[in-house]
Amino acid sequence: MNTPLLNTALDLVGAGVPVLPLRAGKLPFGNCPTCAAVACGGRPNMREAGPCRCPAPCHAWAAATTDPAVLTSPAWAPTWRQAAALAYHPGGAGVTVVDLDNADAVAWARATLPATRTVATTRGQHWLYRGAMPSANNVRPGVDVKSSMSYARWLGPGTGTMTVLPEVVRALIVKAPAPVRPVRAAVPGGGGRCPHRTPVYLERGVAMAVRRITAATEAVHATVFRAFLAVLSTHGRCGCLTEDHTMRLFAAAQAKGESARHCADAWANARTRLGL
């Protein structure tokens, strides 16, 4: 059994940090037989997985636990014998890790991000901020954001004082959507002017859709699609929608954890549904 790793894990859970062991290659352990076919209560999509209900470590980040009885249980003993490293769930600890993978990424962070606690890694640094947010990889060259529904390797407590999660870090995961061509259809009444919509009406419709997405606490995929569908059904045939409107809608969806690709797909599917 890798006693030093287990002892470190027990120290961390005592401080309220959810931990999980990693196998060689910094990879999580695969699902145990008890969790085959998601029998433990997790969901097939690991981005939506819940904490494992079985006593063995599985489901990657969702295996992280703060229960010392689970860590020291007989079910975990084989895993600790194979463990090569320790990881933790930053979002579960109320932390966001900006993973800087090389010297160029570190230089960018020093010039761009507020100073905070740093941890040295093999090739770069982890910058730790107080506060959780959705995770995203490759937000810029050599930079990943690890927080909710992700795990980061434990490499020590680091140095410096942890800063409150700033907006500049939250903004890293909001990617500009692919350009969306406005739908231009014949407008009843002629004259090149939309006869039943005004800028205020359009603005109100987009703002309502953004609020609907932001307020979603479950079924985010479906909520995003329905919000896009509502906007397009009312404002999609007259050419009033601009790229700025779509960027606001996509940004709201990405702030809830949706990928840029899912946003583009949902937008395209909504247009297809409406025959646009």
Walk me through the topology.
Layout: H1 3-14, E1 19-23, E2 27-28, H2 68-71, H3 77-82, E3 85-88, E4 95-100, H4 103-112, E5 117-120, E6 125-130, E7 136-140, E8 143-146, E9 152-153, E10 163-164, H5 167-170, H6 199-214, H7 220-235, H8 243-255, H9 260-274
Parallel strand pairs: 6-10
Antiparallel strand pairs: 1-2, 1-3, 3-9, 4-6, 4-8, 5-6, 7-8
Describe the structure.
With 276 residues, this protein is α+β, with helices and mostly antiparallel strands. The chain is built from 9 helices and 10 strands. Strands 4, 5, 6, 7, 8 and 10 form a 6-stranded mixed β-sheet that branches. It has a 4-stranded antiparallel β-sheet with strand order 2-1-3-9. It is elongated. 36% of the residues are buried. The model is unreliable at 41-50 and 182-192 (pLDDT under 50).
